[in-house]
Structures
1.
Amino acid sequence: MAKAAFIGLGVMGYKMAGHLAAKGHDVTVHNRTAAKAKAWTAEHKGRAAATPREAAQGAEFVFTCVGNDDDVRAVVLGPDGAFAGMARGAVLVDHTTASAGLARELAAEGSKRGFGVLDAPVSGGEAGAKNGRLTVMVGGATPVFERAKPLMDCYGIAVMLMGETGAGQLTKMVNQICIAGLVQALAEGANFAVRAGLDATKVFQVISKGAAQSWQMENRHGTMLQGKYDFGFAVDWMRKDLGICLAEANRNGARLPVTALVDQFYKEVQLRGGNRYDTSSLMMLLAEP
């Protein structure tokens, strides 16, 4: 069993840290809102620390799962950051969906200090975190990955090393690019079925068994047809992720016309007050033009 720190107890991190504790690891947590850390320690065996630095002291593995690049820098770098508390030989695993540039920045700084660093964004949503069935896409050195993988297996159903530093974040970008197009296509198909006078539920029951099948179709077509969006992965976070994808595409020359268009559709959802709606709320723009 390892001594670990988990920094960031949001929708995903709270449950991921819980799986580590449930598997017997010695877990110390930190959250910007101390009440969340207190609630976690009341539910799980573990301790809470006042700062990321304190949480990381003595930890063999430090996990972070926060909002964006700036949030990661805030909890990792600086006098109260995790790097300030980590000892040589420790490993930082960043589960935040962030930029590949940040991954390289952290890895370079970690190398100077004698730390291993992995970028390891996840996919699977709140349900995946709760059930310990996340997909974890990892970038970094193979020996560091092999050390950290047994801990990531506590909440991951598929934990895979994708390549060198930054490869995990780049893989997550591909994931989000594909989801954006899938959800828009699903919304258009659902709206078409309704306006054509079909029983849309039956439509998806049959086409989900064929070539059109996807996770989004299986898990979201019902709520989309009901106009329910107050749950799931928030539009605000999707726009953050798509912004990262589009910025990276500008650097590497990839063309993302559909992604750019869907990003603007999500902007319209935000303008309608749907910032915290699930990403399937693209349907709203078609059902209520």
2.
Amino acid sequence: MDSKNVAFLGLGVMGYPMAGHLARAGHRVTVYNRSAEKSAKWMGEHGGKSAATPAAAAAGAELVMMCVGNDDDVRAVAMGRDGALAGMEAGAVLVDHTTASASVARDVHAAAKAKGIGFLDAPVSGGQAGAENGKLTIMVGGEPDVFARAESVLANYARAVSLMGAAGSGQLTKMVNQICIAGLVQALAEGINFAQRAGLDAERVLDVIGKGAAQSWQMDNRGKTMVADRFDFGFAVDWMRKDLSICAAEARANGAALPVTALVDQFYARVQAMGGSRWDTSSLIRVLRNAK
């Protein structure tokens, strides 16, 4: 694959290893992070360059990837005075890996298009482990020709990269992903809690039912740690609640009913009240364990 000039904006738990995969693949990477210390650490491990602003990092880049916190961050890093679009040249492509709203994706798409710049909303699934292992699933919204220019580069940290439709479709697909996960984790929590209260060997139960129709990624990767009451890793409750609030807002707009998702979000609020804001999402079981 041809080496490209690329930029990566946002070196959090996801962006840091994703940018590393680009460097290892031979791309010339410039990074930006609000904390300069994080950029310096990344360069110490991977080489490349850093820049003081998103615009400076994006200058001369063929592709610019960003992975930040929320809608406000996306607007600032992409469209602010020193944002990526201010430094990008016509013909370049901006890819947003943030889990954000479909509306902000459409806004950035419009702003990019006005400058002759391609834009893809491309949220990811697979968590920190997926980012570190280069095995993320990327769901993408945007024009097919723009997608074609970015697909091979995104594949450096993905097991699957799929175009789902027009701008905003990637974010909408990620919402479906989070809705499904919320229900699965709650069901798994209830099943494990039931097994333990019934006096069963919960790990043995998981081994057995994991070979049947109840099997899921959550069961395979979170079941045993839920049994062991371990949650100091993974996808934080705070992040999941942010994602579910995006789902709820979109559902209010399109008329979709999300009764189970709304209930699970309330349970996550109870986990936060227990001090579990940074616990893994599988910590839902602690609500059940504390129930009389």
3.
Amino acid sequence: MFAAAPSVSLTERAYRQLEELIVTLALPPKTVLSEQLLSQQLNIGRTPVREALQQLARDGLVTILPRRGVLVSDINLRTQLRLLELRREVERLMARVAAERSTPAEAAAFRQLATDMRHASDAADDIAFMRLDRELNALISQAARNEFATRSMGLMHGLSRRFWYQHYREAADLPLAASLHAALADAIARRDGAGAANASDALISYIESFARKTIDS
């Protein structure tokens, strides 16, 4: 079901697989998780699974209840707007410095992501789009080379992707979302710091509008 690069640790592999299962609601909110069952499902030892669950707890995607187990966290619609207040400021900074600091290889990767985002939209492939969104976030963090900003964003992106996946069918415009993500990737690839910052703001404004439509509905 999942493929992992050889260089990825077992804990990181478990984290990525569990995050995707939670974000795509294969493990819905309030599901009680068993380390043993997850270990069997992912074919990964219990120690990496336990470490992955601890990381997911720091990300807010699960809640560890002493002596009671692990619970997939609920989706709170209104917290998304508070989350977006911080995302706007941090992502604008990261987009600008990523454009300024990216290597030629990273710039090429940004250009490819922009193309792949548009293809995923054309195919109406929501899972591919979500995975590309994760790749884009990771590449921006890598190119920005600011570990403090990266840690801040790591606490928000999983929650944001899950919120989007739960509601995109009722309120999202996938072609527009893909276009805005692609514009951000293209601006970073061009090393246009100001353009990347503006593209980041435009993307967050769209995501905020999407969240408000969801809450209103």
4.
Amino acid sequence: MGYKDRYDPHLLSPISRQPQREEIGIQAPLPFWGADIWTAYELSWIDARGKPQIAIAALYFPADSPQLIESKSLKQYLNSFNQTSFENAHSVQKILLQDLSRASSSPVEVLLKLPEVFGQEQIEELAGESLDRLEVGVRDYRVNPDFLEVGAPVVEETLVSNLLKTNCPITGQPDWAAIQIRYRGPRMKRAGLLRYLVSYRQHQDFHENCVERIFMDLSRRCRPEKLTVYARYTRRGGIDINPFRTNFETTRPVHFRTARQ
């Protein structure tokens, strides 16, 4: 299949969030707020002289937007900029803002990083206590919230794992992620939490829906007073997607990239 290299906003494919949310029992008002933080590393266009220009785009879709964007369609849409002439980077930013806000039916934030600031990009890892060195046996690779258990006392802590893997519902391709869970509440039992995260290994769903399912399972099974779930998925097709959901934090996380991204 060939890609269009002339600007075409009709390549974007919005997908309603509602059916997946209804499936896992999310009702209005949403029990969280947050954003889907995307990084597009392969954005290019040509200027008025025909000279190629490049940028890295950071895209922020609010979690309460009615639609999410299917990632392959975003890739195709961005490719349509490749042989299209724009006056400057601001013009590109403006058209991205217009098209993505229209497709998601919600105001989207678009930031462009130009080559002169590429050297400021830093690699970091999600902060927190890693679960990944726990010696646990795993036999179940279907999502199983029964693994989740809590004990006393009430704690406030941040846990992380690099072992989350899910699968794209469109292509079946693997999606790899690091995940951070920050909460205050009864102490989550580590082995059960790790088994639960690994149980997503054959699960097919969009990144955003997986994070929301994890948020809801933790909320129901562990009953924390405060909860944040944040996943950073490795890039595919030049794009990474990083869903952030919280019921207590007042600002979204600082955007960075992990070693695998």
